[in-house]
């Protein structure tokens, strides 16, 4: 990942206020080619709002969002053609068959990859002749994913894309997602409550709590640098440690390294699910 190049998506000091609700609070983050960012947060943490701000679907209150170098509020059709988005609740195309819906959708995208479309239709066992409104929730989600991916977008934004997919479809989809991003120099931002999926395919974790981005780092570094520790009696907190949460003597900290171990009575590593639970205790 070369961070000297232009980010595909960049949030700079973004805030979004809805009436009396601050949904996004001074958030900065940049996605570069090849990054697959898993967005985690409780219900109402601001994940969908962040995605909607990125796409210019809602106006930002403060700060900036740029997408392939353009401001999200003023995207050209050239940039829009290079975005893929699957909202939490897709979608439309009622009254169409799967085949006809794809035919129409495809016509908007010059870079549509028909082979990719066919492979995915077969993989998800979607029948072309079936009416869209007769599809199950999971099948609709699969169709929405094909529609967002078959033109190999430069930026793919997926709001809980796999919540309704069965474990086999989910697993296959998630690994393809990763390959797609790596192969085509794309970036992916996806939200999910399934921490094991996120752990398996994301290159980076973005964790939001009440509109704030509290963690944004590579998954490997999350594994290495976040710990649940208890400091020895009278031991002050080392400067480099960032306390993410505190429960009695126990501290959930970021920026941990081996040099800290002698200062502690106890050190425990946490997986993503434990991290999520500890952060919200
Ligand atoms: N159009 C809107 N008008 C007013 N408030 C809104 C609007 N959209 C979102 N909010 C509020 O902003 C906050 C963040 O909502 P958001 O949908 O972004 O959360 P989320 O993290 O995606 O949640 P979930 O995991 O449940 O999908 C919530 O408190 C929500 O009520």
TrEMBL record:
<dbReference type="GO" id="GO:0005524">
    <property type="term" value="F:ATP binding"/>
</dbReference>
<dbReference type="InterPro" id="IPR003593">
    <property type="entry name" value="AAA+_ATPase"/>
</dbReference>
<dbReference type="InterPro" id="IPR003439">
    <property type="entry name" value="ABC_transporter-like_ATP-bd"/>
</dbReference>
<dbReference type="GO" id="GO:0016887">
    <property type="term" value="F:ATP hydrolysis activity"/>
</dbReference>
<keyword id="KW-0067">ATP-binding</keyword>
<feature type="domain" description="ABC transporter">
    <location>
        <begin position="9"/>
        <end position="235"/>
    </location>
</feature>
<keyword id="KW-0813">Transport</keyword>
<protein>
    <submittedName>
        <fullName>ABC transporter</fullName>
    </submittedName>
</protein>
<dbReference type="InterPro" id="IPR027417">
    <property type="entry name" value="P-loop_NTPase"/>
</dbReference>
<dbReference type="Pfam" id="PF00005">
    <property type="entry name" value="ABC_tran"/>
</dbReference>
<keyword id="KW-0547">Nucleotide-binding</keyword>
<dbReference type="InterPro" id="IPR051782">
    <property type="entry name" value="ABC_Transporter_VariousFunc"/>
</dbReference>
């Amino acid at each position: 990942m070369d961070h000297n190049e232009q980010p595909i998506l960049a949030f700079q000091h973004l805030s979004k206020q809805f009436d009396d609700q601050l949904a996004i609070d001074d958030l900065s983050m940049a996605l570069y080619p090849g990054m697959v960012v898993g967005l985690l947060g409780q219900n109402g943490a601001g994940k969908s709002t962040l995605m909607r701000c990125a796409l210019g679907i809602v106006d930002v209150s403060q700060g900036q969002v740029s997408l392939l170098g353009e401001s999200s509020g003023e995207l050209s059709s050239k940039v829009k053609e290079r975005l893929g988005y699957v909202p939490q609740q897709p979608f439309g195309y009622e009254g169409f068959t799967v085949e006809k819906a794809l035919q129409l959708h495809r016509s908007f995208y010059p870079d549509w990859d028909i082979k990719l479309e066919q492979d995915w239709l077969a993989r998800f066992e979607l029948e072309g002749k079936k009416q869209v409104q007769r599809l199950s929730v999971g099948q609709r989600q699969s169709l929405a994913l094909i529609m967002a991916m078959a033109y190999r977008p430069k930026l793919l934004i997926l709001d809980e894309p796999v919540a309704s997919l069965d474990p086999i479809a989910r697993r296959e989809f998630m690994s393809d997602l990763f390959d797609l991003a790596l192969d085509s120099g794309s970036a992916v931002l996806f939200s999910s409550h399934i921490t094991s999926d996120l752990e398996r395919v994301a290159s980076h974790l973005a964790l939001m709590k009440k509109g704030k981005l509290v963690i944004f780092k590579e998954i490997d570094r999350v594994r290495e640098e976040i710990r649940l520790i208890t400091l020895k009696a009278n031991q002050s907190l080392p400067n480099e440690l960032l306390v993410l949460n505190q429960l009695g003597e126990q501290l959930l900290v970021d920026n941990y390294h081996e040099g800290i171990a002698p200062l502690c009575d106890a050190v425990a590593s946490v997986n993503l699910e434990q991290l999520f639970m500890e952060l919200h205790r």
